[in-house]
Design a protein that fits this description.
alpha+beta, 139 residues, 28% strand, six-stranded mixed sheet, 6 helices, Hypothetical Protein Tm841, Chain: A,domain 3
C-alpha cells in the first residue's frame, strides 16, 4: 500500500480544455468568465492535484495549438525528473491532437511507450469534448 501511495504522489496530470462552456454548465465558472474567456479564446490548463481535486494551472489565450504547445513546454521543463518508461496522452475524441502530442513528446525524449487513453467520465464531464491531457510519473 505504501508503494501505491508513493506512486500517486509522483503522478503528474494536466489537461487543456477547449471551451469554457462545460465549466460554466458545471458551475465552475461564472457567466461573465464564460463571455470574457470566450472572447479572449481562453483555454485553461487544468491539473489534477495530489488530493484528486482539479485546479487551474494556467490560462492560455489564443489557438488550441498554442495551448497544446504550452503542455509540451511544461513536459520539457520537467523532463530530467520524468520516468520515460510510459507516458499517457488522454483525450476526449481528438485523436489528431493526441497524435500531435505524441510526436512532439517523442522529439523531446526517448519515451519507451506513449499510450493513448480516452478521458474518463470525471474529466470529460468537467472539461467537455476535445479536452486532451498528458499524464506521466516523476522519478
Amino acid at each position: 500500500m505504501s508503494a501505491l501511495n508513493s506512486t500517486i504522489d509522483k503522478v503528474n496530470t494536466s489537461f487543456v480544455i477547449d471551451t469554457l462552456d462545460y465549466l460554466h454548465m458545471g458551475g465552475r465558472c461564472t457567466a461573465m468568465e464564460l463571455i470574457i474567456g470566450s472572447m479572449l479564446k481562453i483555454r485553461p490548463v487544468i491539473e489534477v492535484k495530489k488530493d484528486g481535486s482539479l485546479g487551474v494551472k494556467e490560462k492560455i489565450s489564443g489557438t488550441r495549438k498554442k495551448a497544446l504547445d504550452s503542455m509540451i513546454l511544461d513536459f520539457k521543463s520537467k523532463l530530467p525528473g520524468i520516468d520515460l518508461h510510459r507516458v499517457f496522452v488522454t483525450h476526449a475524441y481528438c485523436q489528431k491532437d493526441a497524435e500531435y502530442l505524441k510526436s512532439e513528446l517523442l522529439k523531446l525524449a526517448p519515451i519507451e511507450e506513449v499510450c493513448f487513453t480516452t478521458a474518463g467520465a470525471t474529466i470529460s464531464s468537467h472539461c467537455g469534448p476535445d479536452c486532451i491531457g498528458i499524464l506521466f510519473i516523476q522519478k
